[in-house]
Amino acid sequence: MPRILLVEDDRALREMTWLSLVRRGHEVAAFGTGEEGLAALTRFRPDLVLLDVGLPGLDGFELCHRIRERHPVPVIMVSGRGEESDVVEGLDTGADDYLVKPASADVVEARIKAVLRRTGPVAAAPQQEVHGGLVIDRAGLTVRKDGRLLSLTPSALRLLLHLTAFPGRVFSRAQLLDPIGHHDCGTDTRMVDACVRRLRHAVEDEGEHPRYVQTVRGFGYRFGPL
């Protein structure tokens, strides 16, 4: 399944869309601003960008234009603005499709498949990822360690899926509040530390010397092994 870069500023909608795409087997990186999405483009190397138009700062039209300057990746714009002029502007900016909100998960998936059929074949991504002794099935939302199925809380699973999408990248605690589903906690990052402890308890052999979920003192967390 293709890799999807999702840029959506509405936290609840971003989380819901992320979960829907992951359940369909996609590898998804989700961000809330155009600047973050643009920065992730080269690093994540998506097969398709699902892009909200009404972003703060760098809006969807300008982000699409900048994507077109750098990469041939197909773009689907998603917006609550369904006037003919908005659709025309989006397509003129370089979008391959324009989808008006609200759209069901099935419609979004159908549009993704249709755009990828038009723009060319995408190399199939493995359904399972192997990270040392960990085997992650993103489609089935399961994690095994040394062949044993792990029982992870939803927030711990979200954290693992997010960190493993960017091996080696350091995320601050504040940056991890949204991926683990605690975006309503404001600046209270204790939820992240608690989630990290639960995840480490499940995946690490030595709690004092974590191999996978590593602390970068003064900055945050990253996924190893490096």
Description:
The protein is α/β, with parallel strands linked by helices and 226 residues long. The protein has 2 domains: 3-119, Response regulator (Rossmann fold, 3-Layer(aba) Sandwich); 152-223, Winged helix-like DNA-binding domain superfamily/Winged helix DNA-binding domain (Arc Repressor Mutant, subunit A, Orthogonal Bundle). Helix content is 40%, strand content 20%. It is built from 8 helices and 11 strands. The protein has helices at residues 11-23, 34-44, 60-70, 84-93, 105-119, 154-165, 173-177, 190-203, and strands spanning 3-7, 27-31, 48-52, 75-79, 97-100, 128-131, 134-137, 142-145, 148-149, 213-216, 220-223. Strands 2-1-3-4-5 form a 5-stranded parallel sheet, with helices on both faces. A 4-stranded antiparallel sheet has the order 6-7-8-9, covered by helices on one side. It has a two-stranded antiparallel ribbon with strand order 10-11. α2 (34-44) runs parallel beside α3 (60-70). The radius of gyration is 18 Å and the shape is elongated. The model is unreliable at 121-125 (pLDDT under 50).
Name given to the CATH architecture of the largest domain: 3-Layer(aba) Sandwich
Mean pLDDT across residues: 83
Structural class: alpha/beta
Number of helices: 8
Shape call: elongated
What share of the residues lie within helices?
40-55%
CATH class of the largest domain: Alpha Beta
According to CATH, what is the topology of the largest domain?
Answer: Rossmann fold
> How many angstroms separate the termini?
26 Å
CATH superfamily of the largest domain: Response regulator
